[in-house]
C-alpha cells in the first residue's frame, strides 16, 4: 500500500511539474541554449590538446548554461515553494513507518529552558498498547527528557507528557499497517506550517516532542516515479 501510494503521488508530481515547465518555460530560448551548450561541450572533447580553445569553449558553455537557466526560471520559481512543502510532507508520511511491535523506541521532549531538579518528576502517560519502560532520563546539555517505550499492540493514539504543571500531547502509532505518522510536534508557528499533522504545541516550556519512528528509504522511489510521470507527460504532448 505504501509503495503504490508513493508511486501515484510521485507520478502526479512529476507530470504536474513537466506540465508547468511546458506551459511557462521559454521553450524556444531553452532549445537554442541547449543546442549551443551541447556544441560547446563537444568542442571541449574535440580540442582536448588546445588549451586556449578549451578555455573559450568552457566560457561559452557557462554562458549558454546561464541562458538555459533564465529560460527555465519562471516555472522553477512557481513550483519551488509548493514542491518544497510537499517533499517535507512526503518525508513524514512515506519516510517513516509506525513503531514495530515489541521493539523499543524513544519519546523525547526538548525544552526551551535549562532543566532543573523539578523536571525529574516529569511523567509520560501512554495508551495500554505502549509500555513505558523507563523513568525520565534527563540530558542537561541538550535540554531534553526522554523515555524508552515499547509497543505491545497496534494502536494510533497519543502520549501525554506532564511537566511542571502543564500537559503536552504527541500522536503515536504502532503496528504493521502503514499509517501516516508525524515524527515531531512543534511549538513554533513556522515549523507547524511546514509540518502541520500534529498541530501546534500549547504555550509552555516544551519546544518540541518527538517519537523515534523507524526511517524508510523513499526518496529514490519518488525520483523514479516522478521522472516517469514527467517523461510520459512530455511524450503525451
Helix and strand layout, with pairings?
Blueprint: H1 2-24, H2 27-46, H3 51-93, E1 105-111, E2 123-125, E3 130-132, E4 137-139, E5 144-151, E6 155-163, E7 166-174, E8 184-186, H4 189-194, E9 206-211, H5 219-236
How does this structure look, described?
This protein has 237 residues and is an alpha+beta fold. It has five helices and nine strands; from the N terminus they run αααββββββββαβα. It has helices spanning 2-24, 27-46, 51-93, 189-194, 219-236, and strands spanning 105-111, 123-125, 130-132, 137-139, 144-151, 155-163, 166-174, 184-186, 206-211. Strands 1, 3, 4, 5, 8 and 9 form a six-stranded antiparallel sheet that branches. Strands 2-6-7 form a three-stranded antiparallel sheet, with no helix packed on it. β6 and β7 form a beta hairpin. The two termini are 31 Å apart.
Distance between the termini: 31 Å
List SSEs in N-to-C order. HHHEEEEEEEEHEH
Number of domains: 2
Backbone structural class: alpha+beta
Q: What's the number of extended β-strand segments? A: 9
The fraction of residues in strands falls at 15-25%
